[in-house]
Amino acid sequence: MADVDVDDSCEKEREKCGGVDDGDDECAVAGSRVHGGGEPGESLKRLRLYSNNWTTMLMARSPEGKGLRRPVPGKRLLTVTFSKITQHQRTDGLWVWSVTGNPLPSQNSSVPLFSCACDDCPDSTCETASKNACANHWLSLTCPQCYTVAYKEDNGEEQYWRGCFEEDSSQMSCKIENLEYKLALAIECCTGQLCNSDRRPQIPHEEPYSEHNMQEFWPIVIAVVVPIVIVSMLIGIISLSCRHFHKRRMDALLVQERRLLDEDGLRVQHVGESTLQELLDHSCTSGSGSGLPQLVQRTVAKQVCLVECIGKGRYGEVWRGRYHDEDVAVKIFSSRDEPSWSRETEIYNMCLLRHENILGYYGSDMTSRHSCTQLWLITHYHPYGSLYDFLQKTTLDYEQMLSLVHSAAAGLSHLHTEIIGNRGKPAIAHRDMKTKNILVKTNMTCCIGDLGLAVIHRQQENVLDLGHNQKVGTKRYMAPELLAETLNPDFFDSFKCVDVYAFGLVVWEVARRSGEYAEEYKPPFYECVSSDPSFEDMKKVVVIDQTRPVIPNRWSSDLLMSQMSKLMKECWAQNPKARLPILRVKKTLFQLLNSWQLQRKEDRNLKIENLEKSV
């Protein structure tokens, strides 16, 4: 065993070398002259060196042990006792001694020194006075604590890692509390010789949604829900206040209205809420029986109970309602479609339209429902609905087909005909003929409705009333002159020709669903345009290509269907002047219907006679 002491003159030699070890004997420190005691396997008892980091690695220029030096400069005097030295030769020709041992505290240090269990050290221990001692073998007096870290692998297996801390690291790491549910990690620090060898920090095993989670969750829920509830309550309070104010206002108007009516000697009992418009529109008649008082028409909505919605269209909704224990149809217009409602109401009120093939009319009303203004048109109710809906789900025999198209022609003929007299009727062109605007009655006849686009003509006054509604008819049913924009709007017969063209398409739709080999329902030009064709698409098909709906070949071998085909072609002729007047169409269909009914009657009589003969 060798005892090696280096006196303080080495520090002066270090300063003379600029703090860098150049390998010369004069500048070597910390055992630069070790004779005999530096052999491999031999122990060094005591070694003094200048250093702020201790090293367990000493290097030499030759295997004889001459020129021993340390590779890192030092700043202060420390004393260490090493217990063992081993050597090996580097590629640059230097011999290296790896020295292990326990450091001894210097005279200038008050930090206790001890060993810690280490999982990354060659001999499973490290010194608390070392800076990263297990990894780089540098020695320091700034590591006062040992540590044990517990963590979980992905498969749930617990693992432990032990070592020693630097002082600055231990100040931060050792004071961190275990993170409970956030991370499966625990750290425990200690002070003492091998104090961390048997320590097992406990990893928390709390569920992800524990009471702690809920304590953090509820404040978030409250922060989100409470403002929503408060805003909703404010909106509700404001709505109730507005409704209450509106009701008080309507009650005041009702009192004023009743006072005015009492002054005129006529009182009418209202049901439900009234409107200012009702007050302005009310008028009284002398009771001569010339017509219903306007006052009764303006209150009809208060006596109708809506039952169910049976359809929706471009102008609004159609409801089935109850009026005086009868079913009625209520067409509800939105306020933006007031021109259509006003036009249809005007036509029904001023024209004599009572006809079995014109939709029956009860009255019109402007009412308030759910704080919204609604425009009601109340008519007869027909459970089969529109001809369009009826053809979607029903096939027809020839007699039903003829009955439907003949009745529709009769209704259109009534519109086109002017009746001159004291209570006469002007001529009316529908301008929107299609299966959706024709209703099917329970006796398998049709009636025409939806007069919102109608044109009125009075021959005596030579006045053509187009109304104020700027909307046009359905593009699929538009005549060629409408699509080509060659129609003369000052000539009433032009509009009647447009109706006849559209009626020809309606006859084609009904005929396709009739007979023993009825085909699937399809709208006109279904093979040429989309379900919602544009104006340009229809113009190309009808005007430029002069296309018409396809007539099946089987119709040519059937006498009745061939006659129906001829009638269709005469209705949808390209030239408006070549089209039949609707009165002529009506008469032709009536003849076909009568002929078919007579033939069926003769067939039935013949069958009865044959049965009687056989008996």
From TrEMBL:
<dbReference type="InterPro" id="IPR011009">
    <property type="entry name" value="Kinase-like_dom_sf"/>
</dbReference>
<protein>
    <recommendedName>
        <fullName>receptor protein serine/threonine kinase</fullName>
        <ecNumber>2.7.11.30</ecNumber>
    </recommendedName>
</protein>
<feature type="domain" description="Protein kinase">
    <location>
        <begin position="304"/>
        <end position="593"/>
    </location>
</feature>
<dbReference type="InterPro" id="IPR003605">
    <property type="entry name" value="GS_dom"/>
</dbReference>
<dbReference type="Pfam" id="PF07714">
    <property type="entry name" value="PK_Tyr_Ser-Thr"/>
</dbReference>
<keyword id="KW-0547">Nucleotide-binding</keyword>
<keyword id="KW-0732">Signal</keyword>
<dbReference type="InterPro" id="IPR000719">
    <property type="entry name" value="Prot_kinase_dom"/>
</dbReference>
<dbReference type="GO" id="GO:0004675">
    <property type="term" value="F:transmembrane receptor protein serine/threonine kinase activity"/>
</dbReference>
<feature type="binding site">
    <location>
        <position position="331"/>
    </location>
    <ligand>
        <name>ATP</name>
    </ligand>
</feature>
<dbReference type="GO" id="GO:0005886">
    <property type="term" value="C:plasma membrane"/>
</dbReference>
<dbReference type="GO" id="GO:0043235">
    <property type="term" value="C:receptor complex"/>
</dbReference>
<keyword id="KW-0472">Membrane</keyword>
<keyword id="KW-0418">Kinase</keyword>
<keyword id="KW-0460">Magnesium</keyword>
<dbReference type="Pfam" id="PF08515">
    <property type="entry name" value="TGF_beta_GS"/>
</dbReference>
<keyword id="KW-0675">Receptor</keyword>
<dbReference type="InterPro" id="IPR008271">
    <property type="entry name" value="Ser/Thr_kinase_AS"/>
</dbReference>
<keyword id="KW-0325">Glycoprotein</keyword>
<dbReference type="InterPro" id="IPR001245">
    <property type="entry name" value="Ser-Thr/Tyr_kinase_cat_dom"/>
</dbReference>
<dbReference type="InterPro" id="IPR000333">
    <property type="entry name" value="TGFB_receptor"/>
</dbReference>
<dbReference type="InterPro" id="IPR045860">
    <property type="entry name" value="Snake_toxin-like_sf"/>
</dbReference>
<dbReference type="InterPro" id="IPR000472">
    <property type="entry name" value="Activin_recp"/>
</dbReference>
<keyword id="KW-0808">Transferase</keyword>
<dbReference type="GO" id="GO:0071363">
    <property type="term" value="P:cellular response to growth factor stimulus"/>
</dbReference>
<keyword id="KW-0067">ATP-binding</keyword>
<keyword id="KW-0723">Serine/threonine-protein kinase</keyword>
<dbReference type="GO" id="GO:0046872">
    <property type="term" value="F:metal ion binding"/>
</dbReference>
<keyword id="KW-1133">Transmembrane helix</keyword>
<feature type="region of interest" description="Disordered">
    <location>
        <begin position="1"/>
        <end position="22"/>
    </location>
</feature>
<feature type="compositionally biased region" description="Basic and acidic residues">
    <location>
        <begin position="9"/>
        <end position="19"/>
    </location>
</feature>
<comment type="similarity">
    <text>Belongs to the protein kinase superfamily. TKL Ser/Thr protein kinase family. TGFB receptor subfamily.</text>
</comment>
<keyword id="KW-0479">Metal-binding</keyword>
<feature type="domain" description="GS">
    <location>
        <begin position="274"/>
        <end position="303"/>
    </location>
</feature>
<feature type="transmembrane region" description="Helical">
    <location>
        <begin position="217"/>
        <end position="240"/>
    </location>
</feature>
<dbReference type="InterPro" id="IPR017441">
    <property type="entry name" value="Protein_kinase_ATP_BS"/>
</dbReference>
<dbReference type="Pfam" id="PF01064">
    <property type="entry name" value="Activin_recp"/>
</dbReference>
<keyword id="KW-0812">Transmembrane</keyword>
<dbReference type="GO" id="GO:0005524">
    <property type="term" value="F:ATP binding"/>
</dbReference>
